[in-house]
Amino acid sequence: MDKPTPSFTDGMPNLSEAHFEVPTAERMAATAPPAHAPRFLILYGSLRERSFSRFLAYEAARLLEAMGGDVRIFHADGLPLPDDTTADHPKVQELRNLSIWSEGQVWVSPERHGNMTGVMKAQVDWLPLSEGSVRPTQGRTLAVMQVSGGSQSFNAVNSLRVLGRWMRMITIPNQSSVPMAYKEFDDAGRMKPGPLYDRVVDVCEELMKFTLLTRGRADYLVDRYSERKEREPARLQAVAADIGFAKR
Ligand SMILES: Cc1cc2nc3c(=O)[nH]c(=O)nc-3n(C[C@H](O)[C@H](O)[C@H](O)COP(=O)(O)O)c2cc1C
To answer: Is the CB–ligand 1 distance for residue 181 below 6 Å?
Structure first.
């Protein structure tokens, strides 16, 4: 006698209520991509007057603009340390509004003591993961870059990746790390031609592609089963009952 085919849901605990709410291709296709130019916010982690991370941020801005993006750079001068004042501080409001406006971001940090700078981290620390239904970073694309005084290293970009994950961003695979940055920019602050510059072009191109593919779908992308379950158990149970899916 043929053995009964086991259901793929057999033995799955606590999945019943929302199982059929798992995002479908139809739900994704129903979201039309926006018509405006892709919006990018660039953050960099230095307050120095001649700052190579700022120069690199400007190179990324020029490239993204040349590729059709609408780009803003946030300057951290005057931004208080996290929690040193309230979030209605004008610099904090400026930063939060830019992040909400953005569809993609570039974070450029100097490497300092083998990590991103405090200036870089303080900016992200002022961005709440969510405030009511507003999620300033979630679902946005992110490219990470670093400048160093020493030989090439990936300490800062690795930390920025962890931070991007924490802020629920789509961090693209490519990245830029500029060693001995003082050698790579001319007096006017422009990056010299060469493989390190080409890499920055590659990163911006990849960021643009991922942003075009994912923007307008942040809500869809960050929608999580476990959070729906927490937020609206009654509605999800009703959906389950409606389709005859027994509660486990
Ligand atoms: C306190 C301090 C620590 C630093 N630590 C590192 C480091 O760990 N690795 C490195 O390659 N460069 C290090 N540097 C050099 C900076 O990364 C370099 O000066 C960089 O250009 C600073 O960024 P900015 O030009 O955007 O201000 C350090 C510099 C300072 C002042």
So the answer is: yes
For the segment 116-130, what is each residue's pLDDT rounded down to a tens digit?
999 999 999 999 998
Atom 30 of ligand 1: nearest residue by CA position: 112
Distance 84 CA to ligand 1 centre (A): 25
φ, ψ for residue 240 (rounded to 5)? -65, -40
Q: pLDDT tens-digit profile of 156-166?
A: 999 999 999 99
pLDDT of residue 244: 64
Distance CA 63, CA 65 (A): 5
> pTM of the prediction?
0.89
Residue 54 CA, closest ligand 1 atom number: 26
What domains sit in the chain, N to C, each tagged with a CATH number? Answer: 36-216 (3.40.50.360)
Residue 152 Cβ contacting ligand 1 at under 6 Å = no
Buried b (16+ CB within 10 A) or exposed e, 88-120: eeebbeebbebbeebbbbbbbbbbbeebbbebb
